[in-house]
Each structure stands twice: as structure tokens, then as C-alpha cells.
Design a protein that fits this description.
There is one protein chain. The chain contains 7 helices and no strands. Helices cover 51% and strands 0% of the residues. It is mainly alpha-helical. The protein has 2 domains: 77 residues, no CATH class; 76 residues, no CATH class.
């Protein structure tokens, strides 16, 4: 699998404000000698607390941060959310999208939507509803990543594609006549 584009966030900026798995060289010195949030999460997990929600509550971080820490440590490799890198395969369809989607600028978003659209229709041509679902999921994920990072125009490219594929059609009537 290839790495995701550099404009897609890998995880939420939950806390602390450093990338998962490495200390920032220019990070301020810790005010205390206590364990980091990451160390607390790993210690609690090894002590038997396995639920992501519980670990998040106990350490005061968001579940997406806990998931990223555990995934990096290979303790919960199955964890996925909005911020999970596309380099971690979710299913057999992930390989078609990995490292190929972005929202750096509007042309990048348009190229990404063109890929999503092509794959969506290819999956539809062979009756692969799970593949189509994954294409929709990728479009929704990129839309949310773009809009929540302030890239409104880029997010709108994804939004328009999603609306065209989700809205305005009565799928129940289409299925009854098929």
C-alpha cells in the first residue's frame, strides 16, 4: 500500500499536540515527570482496560487518539475512523483508493472525485454493492476531512458528488421495477 497524500490528516489533534509515535524535536519540555497520554493509554490497555471509550475517558483524550495509539502499537490493528490513514487497509477495496485521494487544492479534489466516480461505476457495472459502498465512504471521508480543515471549496467538490449519488432518486422505486 502507498502512503496517504500529505493533505489528509492522519489523526485528530486530540492531545497531546504531537504526532502519534514520536516526540517533536521542538516540543516544550514537560511540566512534570508523569507519563504522557500515550504512555497512560498503553499502560491501561496492558492492565486490562480494552475499550477505547473507557481509555479515552480515563486519559482525557478523544477516542480517535486512543485508537491511533493502539493501532500504531499493533494492539488494535482493526481500528478505523475518520482520521485513520488510507495506508491501513480497511477491506479489500482500500487498495484502489490508498494514497490516491486528496484535497490539497480544487484540482486535486476533482481528480480524486473522478477516481471515486470511475471506481463507483466499475463496481456498479459488476453488481458489487460493497465496492460502491466503499467508494461512497471514501467520498464522505474526504469531504469531512476537507471541511473540518477549512478547505471549503475542496470539500464542495466531494459534497456535490455525494449529493448526486445519494440525493434526488427514489431507490425503492428503482429496485421494485428492476
Amino acid at each position: 500500500m502507498t502512503a496517504p497524500s500529505d493533505d489528509a490528516p492522519e489523526r485528530a489533534s486530540d492531545a497531546p499536540n504531537e504526532p502519534v509515535g514520536r516526540e517533536s524535536d521542538d516540543a516544550p519540555a514537560r511540566a512534570h515527570d508523569g507519563p504522557t497520554k500515550k504512555e497512560q493509554i498503553l499502560s491501561l490497555y496492558m492492565a486490562g482496560i480494552r475499550e477505547i471509550e473507557d481509555l479515552a475517558m480515563l486519559t482525557g483524550v478523544r477516542p480517535s487518539y486512543v485508537g491511533a495509539v493502539l493501532k500504531e502499537a499493533n494492539l488494535r490493528p482493526e481500528y478505523f475512523d475518520l482520521y485513520t490513514s488510507t495506508s491501513h487497509p480497511m477491506n479489500v477495496y482500500s487498495k484502489f483508493f490508498a494514497g490516491r485521494l486528496g484535497f490539497k487544492d480544487v484540482p486535486t479534489a476533482r481528480r480524486s472525485v473522478a477516481l471515486i466516480d470511475r471506481l463507483y461505476h466499475q463496481f456498479g457495472n459488476v453488481g458489487d454493492r460493497a465496492g460502491q459502498h466503499h467508494a461512497l465512504l471514501m467520498a464522505l471521508t474526504m469531504y469531512n476531512r476537507a471541511r473540518w480543515t477549512g478547505k471549503r471549496e475542496e470539500a464542495d467538490v466531494y459534497r456535490r458528488w455525494l449529493l448526486a449519488h445519494l440525493g434526488g432518486r427514489d431507490i425503492w422505486s428503482e429496485e421494485e421495477t428492476a
